[in-house]
């Protein structure tokens, strides 16, 4: 008789006869009835994520245990202990124990729950490679991955391979695993929801904040969990053959059809058929296909089907219809779309709110459009910002316009969009006490009175002194044009009360500064363009983000209860970036 090894929460293995064990059959795979259960008020049950070894147990000496264990400050940690070094409550760092921690790197890690991937890639908050999966009002983060095997927008199930354990962003091989609840709730004093931060790959940790904020973070987002809905490595994992591909979009021009679908498993292949053409192609390992066929007719509807190939198992398919465009583009005339490169964003203007748009972008020089570079826009204005890009990098961009149903036209193609690095952004100096301002671009000095101190402006292009600049008794102002070393474009700026600030026409002021928890941004009369407002806290983390900010009205912000210290305010427009510092005392 077959035996099935089932691990219960205490870590003690029980042998259960197959006749007594309750199982579900998925295609050719076996799975226990231990279900993933997300509990906002207790301990959630998740699927065992590793393919080799089993759980070593609670409170066992880490150097002597066997299998996978939770690292802690004092040896092996335990489920739900809240013993993580940082402020990620209930987070667990998993590694092979018994002196094998270094062997953890390269181990496959699977998804502990089903859901939608809302972030997949590398992020600079010491997480390294990470995957964040959303299900209902929960989200799960697995970080420090060496390789990420899924992409943004993918739908995964329990047991889907999401990557390989690594040491990216840390010093030792391990997987950082955190479960969050109530992600739709506002965090950090109501400025951003947990979901909006997670979609950018950012942390929800409260490290560096007051005890009140830490407790608020724990009560709002921290979710305790255990791997009790697991299948040990000796059992086959669920088969992906019972999942239908998710067609992200199907669009057509006059003589081509382009399909894009979400990745289910990087070990799977797909097939595509177009019935009216008699077209069929199998063994597709990517997640998109362009069909250019001389038999395609303009303004004609075709049926397309995408199937997941399952090694002689019954394939699972998803179908839809797409209509090719008209050669005269009568119902979808060309539009005048303009593209403007900024620091970490690309602004697309000239859009029509009545149409749907898809923007695809990738780093220049790559041969394929990656899944993580697909963004669907719900356009409600004539412009939109593609944000969270890498400053200094070069991108290629396609903008597709919906012409009714699944008919799309290629609105514009722009290659080699060069984003400026941080130091190349125009720096507008309104007032500094004393010190140095550096930029590898242009520095503009407005309404600056230097008295009793020394100010130095160093730029690689030019330093411009505008009306309002004055050096009084005891003051010294130096200006240099030189080649800045790579990475030296830090903008060090201390904002102070300046006599002529109220007359600044093309900038914004911050008052009061310093403040006791509340301050206001006041825009100048000549500042009449929308922009993106970003505020970073004293630890350098994104604290506040708002796109399409109008300069017509002052903006008041409340930091009460947040960490005190120096906050950096960035206002990014097509004309450049204004930077201010504000002190919370």
From TrEMBL:
Signal peptide: none annotated. One of its GO terms (molecular function) is metalloendopeptidase activity. This is Peptidoglycan DD-metalloendopeptidase family protein. It comes from Fulvivirga marina. Pfam families: Peptidase_M23, Por_Secre_tail. PANTHER family: MUREIN HYDROLASE ACTIVATOR ENVC, PEPTIDASE-RELATED. Gene3D superfamilies: Glucose Permease (Domain IIA) (2.70.70.10). InterPro entries: Cell_wall_metabolism_enzyme, Dup_hybrid_motif, FN3_dom, FN3_sf, GCX_COOH, M23ase_b-sheet_dom, Secre_tail. Residues 510-581 form the Secretion system C-terminal sorting domain. Residues 102-182 form the M23ase beta-sheet core domain.
